[in-house]
Design brief:
- It comes from Podospora pseudocomata.
- With 790 residues, the chain is of the alpha+beta class.
- Helices cover 46% and strands 10% of the residues.
- It is built from 23 helices and twelve strands.
- Helix 6 packs parallel to helix 20.
- It is elongated, with a radius of gyration of 35 Å.
């Protein structure tokens, strides 16, 4: 039976047809011809075949380099997902192809249209034109039929077939980005409105979902050979790593690299004359590339060939895009992702850096604009004056916290790209930028984690509870809360293991691009450790959040097992690899859809619910007792306003610019100076700040320790007043700090109802303000117990 050239290209089968974007015309195409044999005598620098079933023709555009002389036969094998469909022997002489019967050595340019017979069309199932990211391959082995090499295979080429349908869709990228962005934005709005409990839950889930998207993108950045559907699926999430193509930005990056002494890649400029092979089978092509290179220098003198061969080997291991002896390119790993995104391999680092900087600038401007809009709305009576009050008065501190959170979100991308740039050395300026961003972001996050640990330890020393200062001090919560608000208070340290987890994955991706097996083993160990730690420690804030994150860790661990299978270290049949690729896509697509729906439903309910905080149960760390929530602590609002009016100051945050340190925060070194100035007991005192009272003297109360207090006029010095009754001192009146006891010549102290001391009278001989006193042998009063003095 005769078989045309396009019959093997068009004959294959697939598993099932799922949802795929509709196209105006069905096609089958191939854009590269790969060598599948060492010392192959036939290769092609350009290979493009497009088969259109509607007009029953196939357009062939090929520039081949042949070292074969004589008559040959083609052993054609067509397979889909590793399963062989057709095996047949074809003679080019019977097909009447000039230049191939007999074959001659040299460069063979061919550009022609081939008619496709009805028999060939019948062998192509209709599903082949619709299944996304079809994994079909045509393999052709050249066998000599005459001469001394008769019966020997002298060349082998392989072409990957695609139908133009893919799961790498722009709509998926926009949908995932919008959902994650809106969730983070809604959590910020909820926090500004005072619903801190609801805001922390939405933000925790949104950040976990964003981390899952980045984990999917990291799979695509590895040097492991991936099936087509896995490559396309992971490409949907590369936006989370900053790999986004804008034409004018690419021109700027190319100019910048050339201006700083670098040599930009020009793969896309040569696509009309050469082919690019997107590696998906195994990393043996590196050895194949080396064998081709060795043949190129074999005829050189030994003194020249050896240094040249070593230099070529170093370049092959340094660069991820390899130029073969035929002139075509092979891309894998990070540069495979860049090529599929339409970005030159030498521009991918600057692309990530630029989009991270743009994100920081855009968010900063948005926060500043929202601050201005709120002030204008309040000034024009369009919004109540108490709306977003904490944000309006402390927006600079809130902005710093947002920038810290953006640093945490961008850390995986920047760590990978900066470390990878060290292996590429595209230009001196890019190396300097890589050092700056890597050290700067790592130092910033480590410093923030250190601050959180110090704050929590101080809170434990002062109050036997890490949650008190972490959640009662607005400076700490708004600036450092991004590191610990998603965890329970006792797991405040868990940000350090999380940063280590991201750093290890970044190093494996960046430094082991040429060894997919090493990356797969590293990912398997890291993800196994993450799953065990998450399941045993359960560090997140509540049961639902723990379940959400443990599920993500579990699916990441399963993906790492699939990644190990893709390396083919188990020598499994190619059918297994193809099926596992489809399973990975379906499993992760389903899981991502469930997470997205959960986040959307949760966010919508929180936004439109009258009491957003009421949707969530109180957490075991009792953080809601210390947080100023509009739902749980509304009784303090009037007292806060009254205290602020008495001080003649403004409610909320300190208006001063808090840019460098925590000068006004209870978590800073200024705490010691404040306690010395105000006579507050030291950190080792047994007295508590009322950790179990909703009227606690925490940072969410708008009463301050400041010098504007009117205590001096009442004869109490610079001591803070009670949050329950501003006319009373906050601490028990014992020791040398107590007001003077009653004297016959008149005193400012009123009679105490608890200690039976004689009455105090003021200058008008009338009772003065009351004060509490606790004897050493007396039990604490109910008010004292409620305020935490027990």
């Amino acid at each position: 039976m005769r078989l045309s050239l396009t019959r093997p290209v068009a004959a294959f089968a697939s598993l099932a047809a799922l949802i795929a974007p509709a196209m105006a015309e069905s096609i089958l195409q191939s854009n590269s011809l790969n060598s599948c044999q060492e010392n192959s005598l036939f290769s092609a620098s350009l290979f493009k075949v497009v088969f259109t079933p509607n007009n029953k023709t196939a357009n062939v555009d090929i520039v081949a380099v042949s070292s074969v002389q004589g008559n040959v036969t083609f052993d054609v094998e067509v397979s889909a997902y590793g399963f062989p469909i057709i095996k047949q022997k074809v003679s080019p002489c019977d097909m009447g192809l000039a230049g191939l019967c007999p074959m001659t050595a040299g460069k063979i340019p061919l550009n022609f249209n081939l008619p496709v017979t009805g028999d060939a069309l019948e062998q192509v199932p209709g599903i082949a034109y619709n299944f996304p990211d079809l994994d079909a391959t045509v393999k052709v082995i050249f066998t000599m039929t005459d001469g001394p090499e008769a019966g020997n295979a002298v060349a082998c080429v392989e072409a990957d077939i695609s139908n133009g349908k893919t799961v790498d869709l722009l709509g998926v990228k926009w949908a995932t980005a919008i959902v994650a962005g809106l969730a983070l934005t809604s959590s910020a709005i909820m926090s500004g409105l005072g619903h801190y409990n609801a805001a922390s839950h939405v933000a925790a889930n949104a950040l976990s979902l964003f981390g899952y998207f980045q984990a999917q993108a990291m799979l695509g950045l590895t040097g492991v050979p991936l099936p087509p559907v896995v490559m396309s699926w992971t490409q949907d999430f590369q936006w989370s790593m900053g790999i986004i193509r804008l034409e004018f930005m690419q021109d700027i990056f190319t100019w910048y690299q050339r201006a700083t002494g670098g040599t930009p890649a020009t793969i896309f400029d040569s696509l009309t004359t050469v082919s690019v092979q997107v590696e998906k089978r195994s990393l043996d092509f590196i050895e194949a590339g080396m064998s081709l290179a060795k043949r190129s220098v074999a005829m050189m003198p030994r003194s020249i060939a050896e240094p040249l061969g070593q230099a070529m080997k170093r370049d092959l291991m340094r660069r991820a895009n390899i130029e073969t002896s035929s002139g075509s390119y092979i891309v894998y790993g990070i540069q495979r992702v860049a090529f599929r995104a339409g970005i030159e391999s030498t521009n991918v680092f600057m692309t990530c850096v630029a989009f991270f900087c743009l994100m920081v600038i855009f968010v900063s401007l948005a926060v500043a604009a929202f601050k201005g809009a709120c002030e204008m709305a309040v000034k024009n009576k369009m919004m109540d004056s108490d709306k977003f009050l904490d944000f309006r008065n402390g927006w600079l501190t809130v902005l710093k916290g947002i920038l810290f959170r953006l640093t945490l979100i961008g850390f995986p991308s920047m760590a990978i790209m900066c470390l990878w740039e060290f292996t590429q050395n595209d230009s001196a300026a890019l190396m300097v930028l890589a050092v700056f961003f890597l050290i700067g972001m790592t130092t910033t996050l480590c410093w923030a984690a250190f601050k959180v640990i110090m704050i929590a330890r101080r809170s434990i020393v002062m109050h036997n509870n890490p949650a008190y200062i972490l959640f009662s001090d607005p400076q700490a919560l708004n600036k450092w809360g991004f590191l610990y608000v998603q965890f329970r208070a006792s797991a405040y340290y868990f940000i350090l293991p999380y940063l280590g987890y991201l750093g290890l994955k970044a190093m494996f991706i960046a430094f082991a691009q040429h060894s997919g097996t090493v990356q797969a083993v590293g990912f398997l160990i890291i993800e196994a450790g993450a799953l065990i730690a998450a399941s045993v420690l359960r560090p997140w804030m509540d049961k639902s959040t723990n379940s959400f994150n443990i599920a993500i860790c579990a699916i990441n661990f399963v993906n790492s097992i699939f990644l190990m299978i893709f390396t083919e270290v188990f020598n499994q049949p190619r059918l297994v690899t193809g099926v596992v690729g489809v399973v990975l896509w379906i499993a992760n697509a389903s899981f991502a859809l469930v997470l997205l729906l959960m986040l959307i439903v949760t966010t919508v309910i929180v936004i439109f619910r009258d009491n957003p905080d009421g949707r969530y149960t109180y957490m075991a760390d009792d953080r809601t007792s210390f947080m100023k929530s509009q739902t749980h602590l509304t009784t303090t609002t009037e007292l806060d306003a009254l205290a602020a009016t008495a001080r003649g100051g403004k409610e909320g945050f300190n208006k001063g610019m808090d840019l460098d340190d925590d000068a006004e925060s209870i978590t800073s070194d200024s705490l010691r100076r404040q306690t010395e100035r105000l006579g507050v007991p030291s950190a080792h005192s047994n007295q508590s700040f009322g950790a179990h009272s909703n009227n606690s003297f925490g940072a969410h109360s708008n009463q301050s320790f400041g010098a504007q207090s009117n205590y001096n006029n009442q004869g109490y010095g610079n001591r803070p007043q009670s949050p329950a009754n501003p006319s009373m001192p906050f601490f028990p009146a014992d020791g040398p700090r107590s007001p003077p006891r009653y004297q016959d010549n008149g005193s400012m102290r009123a009679p105490s109802p608890f200690d039976g001391s004689p009455p105090y009278r003021n200058q008008n001989n009338s009772p003065g303000p009351g004060a509490f006193r606790q004897q050493n042998n007396a039990s604490p009063s109910p008010w004292q117990r409620g305020a935490g003095y027990d």
